[in-house]
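Running low. Got one?
___
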Amino acid sequence: MEPTVIVVDDEPAVRDAMTQTLRLDDWQVNAFATAQEALAALTTDFSGVIIADINMPVMDGMQLLQAILALDGEMQVIMLTGHGDISTAVEAMRLGAYDFIEKPFATDHLLDVLKRAYDKRSLVLENRELRKELAAQSGPGPRILGNHPQVKSARRQLGYYQQTDDDVLLVGEKGTGKELAARFIHDHGKWQNTPLITLKCRLLPTHLLEQTLFGGELPHWANKAGKLHAADGGCLLIDGIEALPIPLQQRLYRYIQLRDNPEHPQTSQVRLIVTSRFDLAERVQREQFDPALCQHFLTGHVLMPPLRDRCDDIIPLFQNFTRTIASRYGIEAPTLSSPQQQRLCAHSWPGNVRELRAYAERLVLLGEDRLDNAAPSATTESKLPTLTDRVSQFEFEILSDALRRHGGRLKDVQQELGLARKTLYDKMRKHQLDKENFKRNQH
């Protein structure tokens, strides 16, 4: 995606020249003639940079700068100044402007300052996301674990939906953690003090779904039964929405329309979080899903990736499961051998994270080390580990072996592997290795 810059200057010639220059350098430019117009277009999640002229009528650049920093104190603003305004520009930097550029300016200088300001803004937003994610992941309640890019992307989206009222669709194969993601949205966000009611559509016979969801054939607000009534003021998790017959899908869409209509106050106010194992757009093409309901949910959906697409997460996830289960029962977590790790990574995991957790529980409680290398399902294609995956796995095995033999003593591991202390820490963090686990495993 092209980086964005807002240009604010009341002189059309300057505004047009800067717009043309920046677009030639692959910037997305939004140009405004007045400070008021630019300010109206800004939100706290703006990821770009603002370039503003100091001398403008009605609301000048200094006033605009102060208004922008009041909105977000870490917004990056570059001031344009004439030769006689240097002292004002210096004052602007004291107030919080990123830099100032004196007219006339060289294009290369403008682009250099702009890129540095954009990099700083990107870092600010990235750190904010990391802080939000850390707060959610370290607090009580469900967590979404994993370092694969698709998992990180899903976590960012789930973090956004925690703070909104939007309906959400969670899509993924069985066992990918859709219900966990739903509880992550509810338990960590603005809805956490409201009820979360669950309807599992695939577990109910068709003739009971209408009664269970709506409370019967009457308009749901006329019934004192049904999940929609029970969830009033809170959230309703509809698990397996594709299992609803199309007439009930259409009725659910009519409910959404009434709920969002302020002239229909008797309608219960329920936030909908729905899950599906299938691509709903494809089901619409097959006339197996209502188009209007599909369009409503596709505006806010999160994809939960299958475990076979995130090989680097398998061992860390498995270790987390074994430690958690062992701690719950007051027993020691097993240490995986290299052959066991290889089998874990080679397995196709048709049941995804749910299957991985079940296997971890068997290994901890029963000592069972049975893992059938089942063929991939007919709808998916098996993927061989890439060179990067294999190198990462080899590095993990070397580090684990050294830590185990030295009882978690990092100084000895450093000396054996010829690693600087910081390098060893970084690699242990990458592979989620904890020296304390290896100390406990020494006899």
